[in-house]
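From the methods appendix. Each design record in this collection lists the tokenized structure first, followed by the designed amino acid sequence. Records were kept in a plain field format so they could be parsed without special tools. The example shown here is representative of the layout used throughout.

RECORD:
FOLD TOKENS (858 positions):
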């Protein structure tokens, strides 16, 4: 019998409040975390089961597996502990040694409860299944399978947000080096003694009606078991009945092995054309015949959702209204698609060849340098066209390519390299100009428009040297119109952010923005008839495909549950897009050997600061998890749960760690002081400044802002927090988007217009380059005495952190940093270090792309 714990009992820092539920694996309680002052869910293993070593190992397996997962569609695990005499009092009358897991407290209803009222409408059912597939994809990427997916383990929260619960039957597909079985420990896998107990019967390994055939047969399982279960759940959501049913467990398991579910109704298939084929693919008896991955299943569901939605109504809303409204999916037709890339890595530039049949693309695969490859319909193989470090920028109608040589990431979503021209069939490139961001061929096939930086301003030039548009922000995806009279592009107002809007500029430099600013925008092209600009963007949720005409009338072309980046639209009508599994991750390295951990919180954890004692980091979340305006967080470097401070983009900690600087708004229009504890935010008056970065002076009474006035390049300002008085103390044209104040408050370190780290006296004296630094290097920290700075190169991996002496310019290698898994990683985004150099945290962008051609959108 389960042993109920009385309210008021403390398990470590967690005070039990009430019983939420109970099951075979334990009791779940609402509890209060006394340290962070928030409610959590505590799952406690009953005493009788805690004394059973097999069940205890199973409980520990759940904690170990679930603790690795960090995804918006998976319930977060915060902590694990036991009442084992470490200061935590056990319930009255119980022996010590009661294990527990601490999870986020979810307010919602199980999917089983929703199913009790009958079928779920197809649009909503597919949206639920897509979220589950995305969560499973994240777990599978960690080497973890759920193996007991069922409606009871899916929680529907407010806004129809889905969370996967209870990885208690998770199978670790890859060994955990800290788990039994590693380094000489006994194995704990499907062949070990524990697994023998856990897999003796189907009732233990899974739940009848949702078990895969291999589970029923007690055969080895992998991630495709979860795909089978999700297919069965989706079928039940659409029909209101189980895919494999019967009066007994034995009848249901027999049905799984020998029968197929009854067909879906005509009404369901009409509402979601193609859904029957997807479900059949998930429920194949052989794992090899199912979807290869949960990510592929999510993409397939996305296409079905797009085909099944209503057509847009006449009378398009204004661009501003469209950018703010929730979107319906609007493509009611079949969409044949073909996957182009099969390797692990990230797609960069990609274009159709002039005949619209073949695809050329630049990509970074399995941690190697970028290279250009070519693929043709019907062939799964790709052929290399360019050497290492080469990326594709554009293809002319004549077949010539514009490429970028020695391409390197410079942060903030843009890259630089040597612009060159090269035959499409391969051959030696002809170099043209260095430090070019992007380029596009004019329809005449001879001339090129380019984007680059000059004097701290992002510029569109055509021809090179003739400026059509410049901005203190940045631009991307320049594309000539079909007649060559205009260039469409994405206009991004803030460095380091992909917020932006589609715009066009004519050959006289007249610029027209076609919509309001979107919180994320990636990829742009002209429609086949040249009347619309097609782009990928979102405000909340995942980037979808949109089209806007030159009058600003915007429509949704196709919605996605995963982020999509538009690569090209062929004159013949096909669309080339990349479905992106992308994250910004943050790691911490402590003072002692082995003191390192992943501090990634949601999907875009970008480090902004670290306290002097190395106990906390400041970061922001500006991806899907952060919402439209982004979110500012602090987190203990011991791995404690993150605490959300408010909306915005974070900049830096105050000297005492009590405040954080942040900007709020898509254009970073408001600067705020946000308390890291109790208190209210304070708005800092900045007038017409657009702030890209802000850091503190040591006295805590003023801040250093890297900012720009309307129409002008960035420079450094000192702003008094009490009065709002601002004083510029640098030249215009500061590049990049960070600056660090010296320990004595006399200097600021930033990049000059030539992209080299430079020391700027706050009193307005003459600046001087940081001797020993090289172009594009980024700052990490000042030394405690202010006699040296630490720097790294954003575009190399592993990243080498150098100490540069201010007096002599001498460089000393301090340490190397590299992600645990470098696949899809092209450099370190940012790094911050404590003044004593003993603790360091860093962030990196990891992107895994799957590129497809899609027919029938235009």
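DESIGN:
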């Amino acid at each position: 019998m389960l042993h109920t714990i009385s309210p008021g009992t403390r398990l470590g820092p967690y005070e039990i409040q009430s019983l939420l539920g109970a099951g075979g694996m334990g009791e779940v309680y609402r509890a209060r975390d006394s340290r962070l002052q928030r409610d959590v869910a505590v799952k406690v293993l009953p005493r009788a089961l805690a004394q059973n070593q097999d069940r205890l190992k199973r409980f520990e397996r759940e904690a170990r597996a679930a603790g690795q997962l960090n995804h918006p569609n998976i319930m977060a695990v915060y902590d694990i502990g036991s009442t084992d005499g470490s200061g935590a009092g056990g319930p009255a009358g119980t022996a010590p040694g009661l294990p527990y897991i601490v999870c986020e407290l979810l307010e919602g209803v199980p999917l089983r409860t929703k199913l009790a009222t009958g079928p779920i409408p197809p649009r909503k059912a597919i949206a639920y299944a897509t979220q589950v597939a995305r969560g499973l994809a994240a777990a599978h990427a960690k080497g973890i399978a759920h193996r007991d997916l069922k409606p009871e383990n899916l929680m529907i929260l407010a806004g129809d947000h889905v969370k996967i619960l209870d990885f208690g039957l998770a199978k670790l597909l890859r060994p955990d080096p800290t788990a039994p079985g590693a380094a000489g420990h006994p194995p704990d896998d499907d062949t070990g003694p524990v697994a023998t107990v856990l897999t003796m019967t189907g009732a233990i390994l899974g739940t009848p009606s949702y078990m895969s055939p291999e589970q029923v047969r007690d055969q080895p399982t992998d991630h495709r078991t979860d795909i089978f279960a999700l297919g069965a759940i989706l079928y039940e959501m659409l029909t209101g009945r189980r895919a494999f049913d019967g009066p007994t467990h034995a009848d249901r398991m027999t049905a799984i092995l020998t029968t197929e579910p009854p067909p879906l109704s005509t009404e369901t298939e009409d509402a979601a054309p193609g859904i029957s084929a997807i479900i059949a693919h998930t429920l194949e008896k052989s794992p090899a015949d199912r979807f290869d991955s949960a990510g592929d299943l999510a993409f397939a569901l996305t296409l079905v959702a797009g085909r099944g939605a209503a057509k847009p109504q006449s009378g398009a809303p204004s661009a501003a209204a469209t950018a703010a409204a929730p979107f319906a999916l609007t493509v009611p037709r079949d969409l044949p698609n073909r996957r182009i890339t099969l390797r692990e890595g990230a797609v960069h530039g990609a274009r159709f060849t002039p005949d619209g049949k073949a695809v050329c693309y630049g990509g970074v695969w399995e941690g190697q340098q970028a290279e250009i490859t070519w693929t043709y319909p019907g062939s799964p193989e790709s052929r290399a066209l360019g050497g290492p470090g080469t990326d594709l920028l554009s293809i002319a109608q004549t077949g010539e390519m514009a490429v970028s040589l020695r391409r390197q990431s410079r942060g903030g979503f843009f890259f630089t390299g040597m612009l060159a021209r090269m035959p499409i069939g391969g051959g030696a490139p002809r170099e043209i100009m260095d430090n070019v961001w992007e380029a596009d061929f004019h329809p005449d096939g001879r001339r090129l428009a380019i984007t680059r930086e000059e004097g701290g301003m992002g510029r569109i030039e055509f021809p090179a040297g003739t400026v059509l548009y410049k901005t203190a922000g940045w631009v991307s995806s320049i594309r000539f119109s079909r007649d060559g009279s205009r260039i469409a592009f994405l206009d991004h107002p803030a460095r380091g952010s992909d917020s932006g809007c589609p715009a066009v500029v004519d050959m006289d430099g007249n610029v027209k923005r076609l919509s309001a600013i979107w919180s994320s925008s990636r990829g742009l092209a002209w429609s086949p008839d040249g009347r619309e600009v097609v782009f990928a963007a979102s405000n909340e949720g995942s980037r979808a495909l949109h089209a806007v005409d030159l009058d600003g009338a915007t429509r949704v072309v196709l919605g996605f549950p995963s982020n999509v980046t538009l690569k090209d639209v062929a004159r013949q009508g096909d669309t080339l897009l990349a479905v992106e599994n992308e994250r910004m991750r943050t790691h911490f390295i402590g003072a002692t050997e082995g003191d390192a951990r992943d501090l990634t919180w949601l999907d875009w954890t970008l480090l902004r600061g670290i306290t002097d004692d190395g106990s906390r980091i400041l970061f922001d979340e500006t991806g899907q998890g952060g919402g439209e305006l982004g979110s500012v967080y602090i987190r203990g470097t011991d791995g404690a749960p993150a605490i959300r401070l408010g909306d915005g983009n974070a900049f830096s900690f105050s000297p005492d760690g009590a405040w954080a600087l942040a900007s709020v708004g898509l254009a970073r229009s408001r600067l705020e002081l946000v308390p890291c504890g109790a208190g209210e935010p304070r708005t800092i008056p900045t007038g017409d400044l657009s702030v890209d970065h802000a850091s503190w002076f040591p006295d805590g009474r003023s801040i250093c802002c890297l900012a720009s006035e309307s129409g002008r390049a960035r420079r450094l300002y000192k702003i008094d927090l009490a009065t709002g008085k601002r004083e510029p103390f640098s030249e215009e044209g500061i590049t990049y988007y960070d600056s660090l104040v010296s320990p004595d408050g006399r200097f600021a370190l930033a990049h000059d217009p030539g992209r080299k780290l430079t020391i700027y006296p706050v009193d307005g004296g003459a600046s001087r380059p940081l001797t020993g630094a090289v172009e594009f290097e980024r700052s990490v920290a000042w030394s405690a005495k202010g006699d040296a700075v630490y720097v790294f190169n954003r575009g190399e991996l592993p990243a080498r952190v150098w100490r540069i002496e201010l007096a002599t310019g001498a460089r000393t290698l301090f340490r190397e940093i590299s992600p645990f898994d470098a696949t899809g990683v092209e450099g370190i985004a940012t790094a911050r270090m404590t003044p004593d150099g003993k603790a360091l945290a860093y962030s990196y962008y990891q992107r895994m792309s799957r590129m497809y051609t899609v027919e029938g959108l235009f």
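APPENDIX NOTE: Residues 122-141 form the longest helix (20 residues).
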